[in-house]
Design brief:
about 20% helix; 2 helices; single chain; binds FE2/S2 (inorganic) cluster; four-stranded mixed sheet
Amino acid sequence: MAHRKRYLFVCVNRRPDGTPKGSCAARGAIELHAKLKELLEARGLAQVEARACTSSCLDACWAGPTIAVEPDHFMYGRVGLDDVSEIVEALERGERVERLVLEARDFDEPKK
Ligand code: FES
């Protein structure tokens, strides 16, 4: 297998129901990872361009589901299933979906 140009780490961490922070798995990250993998494969990007991996908590739970994109070193947040095709199309063009990119303030846990 080739060393891919990019690795997309989808947080699939799950916390018990009712945990105030919530978790990406509880917000649909498992399905998100599956769809990302499926679309990368379908577009012929999975072998060289990008691999969809799972990850434990990326520490921006309140902005989840999150995806860390490396080596570009940015994170997508609040990603829904409907966003996945846009992410893959942008990746194909060497771009990113700006409206989903987390900003510095998104990494601060909101005060209760
Ligand atoms: S549970 Fe996904 S970022 Fe923490």
